[in-house]
Write a structure and sequence with these properties.
This protein has 4 helices and 8 strands, in the order αβααββαβββββ. It has about 170 residues and is α+β, with helices and mostly antiparallel strands. It has a single domain, classed as Nuclear Transport Factor 2, Chain: A (Roll), CATH 3.10.450.50.
Length: about 170
């Protein structure tokens, strides 16, 4: 049963990472920091570049989440940086092979056990590193929040470098 597979995940999130006060514990609706400290760009150009990077990260995060919905494990792996570090409760997985081994069971079955969507993205003024955060859903209910650090890699693709979830307060494992 899908629900029973996710309950250990929810329990681990709740017991080991603390909790946030709810789905709006952070700024709403894919907002972004558009301040820039880039010395040679005009503020308008820097803001436009940051805004474009924010859109790219949102699109990357949405495509990453879609791999789960589509049950496409091979596509999921393509979003992992060679330096990926994923936190899950008290365990930490390093590199795409370890992360893939941990996440592969979530891709079994016809229905995704959970989903996620970004609601806030921040990109550094350099345009090379970003934070994406948002709710994690199980059967339409918010059960946690994800926090992912994305890096613009040499091939001009955004890939996840760090990922960690946290339970939402009030959720009982």
């Amino acid at each position: 049963m899908v629900h029973s597979k996710l309950m250990p995940l929810a329990a681990v999130l709740y017991l080991t990472t603390g909790c946030v006060s709810g789905p709006h514990a952070r700024a709403p609706a894919a907002t972004a920091n558009t301040r820039s400290q880039t010395g040679t760009l005009s503020p308008e150009t820097a803001n436009a570049a940051t805004a474009a990077a924010v859109k790219q990260v949102i699109a990357s995060e949405q495509a990453f989440a879609k791999t789960m919905a589509n049950r496409d494990f091979k596509a999921f792996i393509t979003f992992l940086s060679p330096d990926a570090v994923f936190f899950s409760g008290s365990t930490v997985k390093h590199g795409p092979a370890e992360v893939a081994a941990q996440w592969q069971p979530y891709f079994e079955g016809r229905k995704a056990p959970f989903s996620w969507a970004p609601d806030h993205v921040e990109v550094l003024a350099t345009g090379k590193l970003a934070l994406s955060t948002g709710p994690v859903y199980e059967e339409g209910k918010v059960v946690g929040r994800f926090n992912s650090i994305w890096r613009l890699e040499a091939d001009n693709s955004w890939r996840v470098v760090f990922d960690k979830g946290e339970a939402v307060c009030g959720i009982k494992p």
